[in-house]
Amino acid sequence: xxxxxLEQHQQQIHRFSHLAAICGWDQAAMMPEGGxxxxxxxxxxxxxxxxxxxxxxxxxxxIAKAESEPLDEVQRANLGEIKRQxxxxxxxxxxxxxxxxxxxxxxxxxWRSQRKNNDWAGFAPNLEEVVKLSREVAQLRADALxxxxxxxxxxxxxxxxTSARLDQIFGDLASWLPALIxxxxxxxxxxxxxxxxxxxxxxxxxxxxxxxxxxxxFDFAHGRLDVSSHPFCGGVPTDVRITTRYNExxxxxSLMGIVHETGHARYEQGLPRHLxxxxxxxxxxxxxxxxxxxxxxxxxxxxxxxxxLLAPRIRHHFxxxxxxxxxxxxxLYSRVEPGFIRVDADEVTYPAHVILRYELERDLVEGKIEVxxxxxxxxxxxxxxxxxxxxxxxxxxxxxxxxxxxxxxxxFPSYTLGAMYAAxxxxxxxxxxxxxxxxxxxxxxPEIFGWLGRNIWSQGSLHSTDELVRRATGEALNPHWLRQxxxxxxxx
Length: 492
Description:
3-stranded mixed beta sheet
């Protein structure tokens, strides 16, 4: 059967992708400085090999024949994903894939030191090359799919989503979010808040982080925690690699960074193992992936009941401090304060960071703005949303993120879509299990992850995003639930 040939071919792609994922993790977390040029070339070569596998001439014939073969529901869904991925890959010539991989590796590696040095002048030329190649990719995809260039890139991360729908969703957010940020910030001005007093040695932070990962059900037989310049979750479901970054003067952000990445990892570890190696066993979309990390971090990790579980563990590792009292930890983790850094932002101001990036990358990909325009536009939008200026502060402004360095345009909306899905999932979960606070206090964390496992993780890519969410919650994406969650948690 042609379908069986496709399954075997997908297993080969999966194994090569496994190697690429571990090479990428090592490049970010372990590789010595001098290894980058050779590693970039090796990864570009591997990326080209994977691309050749994804676009093999025989695939079109196999797919056409498999469509008329007797397949069960899972096989039919898998065939649909194979066809979608084949069509995506077939749109691009191998030379363009290799060129973008090389430009991305060069840009990302240089970014590590250039960001530290606030070196926009050095960074911009590398980014311009990535943008030039990404525009070629976007235009090729757009011409083939009959959509806008940005929508063609968005489809790589969010199949079925469009910029028109995003404009509507983010327009709704923009109508109430700035007022909420202002109201909550005003309400919190009088709060008595104790800041934990450091230093907090990195080995101790690592030990605490690993203990919390265990509390969240992370499988250390199939994963590990390391350090990188930018926190991420990589690897494969049987070997998940998560990273964070530490600051000895405070542990609050790195700890929740670990909780966030553990959410990603639990999703990966919970994907259907019996289908591993097939596209149907992969995560449904990046927004669904982000929904799992943000569920873990925000819906669960910032919940007062969960912070009450963390308090004795924090005291065990760092000693007694009044700042470690559960009510003070709740204040720390529910503090709304506009800041420069997206990954450190609270959940109320976070969507503003995402909308800023979405608007810039949409216009950048479609040629409405150029790389040289980014700093000034970034500063204007930061002032508009959060009242902060990034003029001349590239390190904490337009150079803070890693996503554009490798051409991942279309990725940023996933973060706020993920927050919306996470809130919607929580309200659906509570209808079945009871309130989160009661479930956590009763020590029923495994039931929460069991619900997510049944409704999200084990489903892989069997259904479209809208259908997956509809099956889990009773409706497709509804931004109302994020607003309800934020107002419920933050308005006094």
